[in-house]
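Section 3.1 - Work completed
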Amino acid sequence: MNLPNPRQRALAILGLSDPIEKAAQARALFAGIDVQAIDPAPEYDAPTTLPGRPARPRLVAAKDVPTRSPSTLEGRAALLHAVTHIEFNAINLALDAVWRFAGMPTAYYVDWLRVASEEALHFTLLREHLLTLGSDYGAFDAHDGLWAMTQRTAHDITARMALVPRTLEARGLDATPPMQARLRQAGDLRAVAILDVILRDEIGHVAIGNHWYRWLCARDGHDPLAYYAELAARYRAPRPRPPFNDDARRRAGFDAAELAWLHGSP
């Protein structure tokens, strides 16, 4: 892929439809990154077919994705498939954050290229585990909530930082420990270990979202907490529901006022 600007390469990788190739390319892009080659200035035209996707999984409404118990092999595969799909979408949204938003500091692009690489590793680990369960990515229906919010915030970088990493991805910090408990009870210790890696990295990803959200608010003169509520209403973001993983959220950069807002306090 002979494209000099890593932002342009991120756009090309985002368009790949083979998830295995996309994950490999995302990891290779960050591993071989030339920071000096990052040019924040160009604004690229978006192709009409973003992101590239495989033919399966079939995308359905979230309410039509059945919930299955991990106590059975099929149920465990279905649960882990849902997480695998989230990680595939997370590769896409990190790559999108790199190419789409011009004029940011170089460190912003390095951060999101790192996120894309780590999400690609998560996808790969989960898919490899799915294969040991007699399944594969694409075997179950999936929904598209994460990418839908990415589309809604395509022209507002502050909203993107507020509502994708700090809202939708932060839900993973809350959901992962209970999921691990269910998988541990089902005896799938490999899945539990993979989710340990994912939780560790996702704390860092949410922290990156928090950092750049606050940086943008400071640049533009917004109060972060008040402006978050305004953006959440404007873009119809779901309000996170308890239980919350307060410890992980603190490590990801949420302050006391934000945690109080989450818990419904004034």
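Second construct:
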Amino acid sequence: MLKTFSIGGVHPRENKLSAHQPIIKAELPTQAVILLGQHIGAPARPVVAKGDVVKVGTKIAEAAGFVSAAIHSSVSGTVAKIDSIVDAGGYAKPAIFIDVKGDEWEESIDRDGTLLKECNLPAEEIVKKIAEAGIVGLGGACFPTQVKLTPPPTSKADCLIINAVECEPYLTADHQLMLEHAEEIMVGVSILMKAVKVNKAFIGIENNKPDAVQLFTKVAGGYAGIEIVPLKVQYPQGGEKQLIDAIIKRQVSSGALPISTGAVVQNVGTAFAVYEAVQKNKPLLERVVTVTGKSLSKPSNFLVRIGTPVQQLIDACGGLPEDTGKIISGGPMMGKALINTAVPTAKGTSGILIMNRKEAKRADVQPCIRCAKCVNACPMGLEPYLLSALAENTEFERMEKERIMDCIECGSCQFTCPANRPLLDYCRLGKGKVGALIRSRQAKN
């Protein structure tokens, strides 16, 4: 029997329209706009100024705290300015604008495609190289990887879990990366095991990717301690807490970190980026992005330089369809609608979804009928109908008591609601307000 997590979950239509489309190198932009806040934590601090000449791989911003990440130029050219631009969330954020000229790389980066399997660096040096390369979690949260690899002294990891689930509908970037770079990913997993000092790693893959399961099972035979775990298709299995539950049957307590279970979770794309950083001295300056949609001419998987405008990727897929109703950064469940197509791609850009008007139109909201479908669907065991009502009535103190901060914003509640109530919208609103209350309280103490 296939494994899965124990509470809640839903089954959206997969719509993997770009599955098995080979990864195409996206054209270089004429100007790259590289956000300084592409990760959880403090935005990076610029180390370049207007007029500076940079190469591909040049560090342009340094980590500005323990929870922060370095940023490198994805192109060669001249720094045009440091200014603000609207990001995928709709907020104006500081960014470095680079006018592109040629494609000159830093000499320290090994661009040879030869596989390098052996890594003789000690754990501390591995973590240092990962930090210098600006690696963050590529599954969406964008948590700085070096922080995850250095848990507090009170916590000890006994296993590594690799998230190769890609449970969001439409997205296929991780799947195609697995098919094209299985060996590099395995080396990356081995390096991560060494970094967290564990002898066991599990790679969780949902069984709607049988080719990836078969390939990884074959390749893993040459690497000690790595086990492939086929999983039942169940959204949101890619969530850290759900994946830990599915694979090792340990639950993360309310308010606790995943490391409390003894597991460190990393995305499969992050494992590949770690291979490139440690073995090839290549910073995180590009990633695979799915560009897809039912009305799009050519749904595709692109290798995209960070800072490339979304419009350029849409053009490479045949242009924006006439019946476009909404453009989503990410997948339909957890992604966010873009306000324009000049938004630059970032480290956390896993996909661009073009929804037609029919898909994008929300149904009319009806009164809650107390059916409890949202309660049954919630993978965190919350009561979304109640949390939504509390947010609507600005009862944020009670929302905290009802564990709103445990919400992972997966959208399962809203997806399953027969009354079409905006449950996720209200939960996100309330979570933001409660988070601000908690930070204010901590600052006073």
